[in-house]
């Protein structure tokens, strides 16, 4: 995201708001260039309760990170959690149309899009889709099917949804602070990716993210 592999994240918590700016290295790691932390005002349990206070808190955290890094931000990745987030399980199935049966990135994307076809409450919208496993011609437990051969590709996916008005209000506060949103991610999943090993995630562990006003288990 951004010029020269610069990325920025914005963590909107109930107790504090954090902004971090980093640069993606050639090895795929991220070097932290600057960060800002300020007390959270106007946001509680992932829901905006005061727009003006939320914008002020966001602007302050972003300003601190920009000053430390010397980089002016235009776009951030938003981390969301709280009571407005709800997860659903669903499956998507597609046929592999090619004669050689090789599964491509496009087939995976079609399967993920097919998993979005489900009935969700009218006041919710899909924020993200996380594949739990892929199934090729009945063979389960596949993490990455690209390059494999088959006639039928199925995905077991976790559908992340948020209350439309809650997500809209968060986005509006970020935009009022002068930023655009590059992506929205679920904070507990992001924390798990950073802190847990592949073996721990395969075996199953509990990662508890404690906030003074909320607690999230992953």
Structural notes for this entry:
This protein has 218 residues and is of the alpha+beta class. It folds into 2 domains: 3-82 and 179-217, ATPase, nucleotide binding domain (Nucleotidyltransferase, domain 5), CATH 3.30.420.40; 85-162, Dna Ligase, domain 1 (2-Layer Sandwich), CATH 3.30.1490. The chain contains 5 helices and 13 strands. The chain has helices at residues 51-69, 105-115, 164-176, 187-195, 198-203; strands spanning 6-12, 16-24, 30-39, 43-44, 47-48, 75-80, 85-95, 124-136, 139-142, 152-163, 180-186, 208-211, 214-217. It has a 5-stranded mixed sheet. Strands 7-10-8-9 form a 4-stranded antiparallel sheet. Strand 1 and strand 2 (16-24) form a beta hairpin. Helix 1 crosses helix 3 (164-176). The chain is globular and about 55 Å long. The model has no long low-confidence stretch (mean pLDDT 88).
Features:
218 residues; alpha+beta; Nucleotidyltransferase, domain 5; Dna Ligase, domain 1; 2 domains; four-stranded antiparallel beta sheet; 27% helix
Domain unit count: 2
What form results from the Cα inertia axes?
globular
Question: How many helices in DSSP terms?
Answer: 5
Helix content: 25-40%
Distance between the termini: 26 Å
Please tell me the overall pLDDT: 88
Structural class: alpha+beta
Rg for CA atoms: 19 Å
Strand proportion = 35-45%
The arrangement of helices and strands along the chain is EEEEEHEEHEEEHEHHEE
Strand order of the largest sheet: 3-2-1-6-11
The name of the CATH topology of the largest domain is Nucleotidyltransferase, domain 5
Low-confidence stretches: none
- Main sheet? 5 strands, mixed
């Amino acid at each position: 995201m951004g010029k020269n592999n610069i990325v920025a994240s914005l963590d909107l918590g109930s107790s504090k708001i954090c902004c971090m700016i980093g640069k993606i290295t050639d090895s795929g790691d991220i070097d932290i260039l600057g960060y800002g932390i300020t007390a959270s005002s106007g946001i509680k349990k992932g829901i905006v309760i005061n727009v003006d206070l939320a914008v002020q808190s966001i602007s302050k955290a972003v300003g601190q990170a920009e000053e430390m890094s010397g980089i002016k931000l235009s776009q951030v990745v938003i981390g969301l959690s709280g009571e407005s987030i709800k997860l659903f399980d669903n499956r998507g199935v597609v046929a592999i149309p090619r004669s050689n049966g090789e599964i491509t990135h496009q087939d995976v994307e079609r399967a993920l899009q097919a998993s979005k076809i489900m009935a969700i409450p009218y006041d919710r919208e899909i924020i993200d889709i996380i594949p739990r496993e892929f199934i090729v011609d009945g063979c389960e437990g596949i993490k990455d099917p690209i390059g494999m051969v088959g006639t039928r590709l199925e995905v077991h996916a976790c559908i992340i949804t948020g209350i439309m008005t809650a997500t809209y209000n968060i986005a509006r506060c970020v935009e009022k602070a002068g930023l655009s949103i590059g992506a929205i991610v679920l904070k507990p999943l992001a924390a798990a990716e950073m802190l847990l090993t592949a073996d721990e995630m395969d075996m199953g562990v509990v990662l508890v993210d404690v906030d003074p006003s909320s607690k999230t288990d992953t």
